[in-house]
Amino acid sequence: MDLAVVVATGIWAMLPAYIPNNVAVLAGGGPPIDGGREFRGTRLLGDGKTWRGTAVGVAAGVVVGLLLNAVQDPVVATLGVPLPEFTLAAIVALSAGAMLGDIAASFLKRRSGRRRGSPFPVLDQLDFVVMALLLAAVADPAWFGAVFTVPVLVVVLLLTPALHVSTNAIAYWLGLKDEPW
Ligand code: CTP
Ligand code: MG
Q1: Cβ < 6 Å from ligand 1: which residues?
Q2: What would the mean pLDDT of 38-62 be, rounded to a whole number?
Q3: What pLDDT is attached to residue 4?
Q4: Can you list the alpha helix ranges (DSSP code H) found in the chain?
Q5: Which of 104, 136, 144, 170 is the most buried (most CB within 10 A)?
Q6: Sign of CA dihedral 14, 16, 22, 25
Q7: How many CB atoms are located within 10 Å of the residue 120 CB?
Q8: How far apart are CA 105 and CA 73, in angstroms?
Q9: What is the mean pLDDT of the chain?
Q10: How far is the CA of 11 from the centre of ligand 1 (A)?
């Protein structure tokens, strides 16, 4: 497999996981998941993790996965690149995993005394990818093994932090996000 195919496969296969966190930024608001509850004096998750942001984010990731399946044939024919079809289990696991990873990271941030919105380098950039990949591997091992070969995994782990940093910077400049990370 040449590098272009590996990169295209990685981005395509991760799209259902890339969408939810960005959509949550747009859709967020309303009651926080932790309902204001604290754990040892600090918020469990904080006001930045809301039911609405999470639900709309996961739904958007699922819709994108289904759309990718719908356009897979023409895209593969046009690009001549063997991009994978998603199973439903893979789509749901990638979308829900991305949100869950981000929520788990907020839990860790609060435990380590970081206020809402404060940066946590490396964790911020990789929380959602790692959890999305883990859930996808558990939900559909056969699909995961066929799509996420070692080269694809390496490209995804190297490329995602760069994509994450740039989309968040753009969202900040557009006034959609309070912090540039
Ligand atoms: N958001 C949400 N629900 C989620 C994730 C994000 O509603 N599950 C929305 C919130 O409005 C949040 C914004 O998206 O403020 C940005 O997300 P993020 O950077 O993950 O949250 P922070 O506010 O920075 O909080 P934290 O320090 O916990 O990451
Ligand atoms: Mg943040």
Answers
A1: 24-25, 28, 46, 48-50, 53-54, 99, 102-103, 106, 109, 116-118, 177
A2: 97
A3: 94
A4: 3-27, 51-79, 88-111, 123-139, 141-147, 150-173
A5: 136
A6: negative
A7: 15
A8: 36
A9: 96
A10: 23
**Ligand that lies nearest to the alpha carbon of residue 113, given by its number in the listed order:** 1
* Per-residue confidence band for 1, with pLDDT thresholds at 50, 70 and 90: low
CA distance 33 to 20: 16
Specify which residues 38 forms β-bridges with: 43
> Both tokens of residue 52?
């609405």
Residue 55 has pLDDT above 70, yes or no: yes
H or E stretch including 39? Answer: strand 38-39
- Residue 173 Cα to ligand 1 midpoint, Å, equals 17
Residue nearest to atom 15 of ligand 1 (CA): 48
Q: HEC states along 82-108?
A: CCCCCCHHHHHHHHHHHHHHHHHHHHH
What mean pLDDT comes out for the span 165-171? 95
Assess contact for 50 and 33: CB atoms under 8 A. yes
**Residue 88 structure tokens:** 């439903």
Model pTM? Answer: 0.96
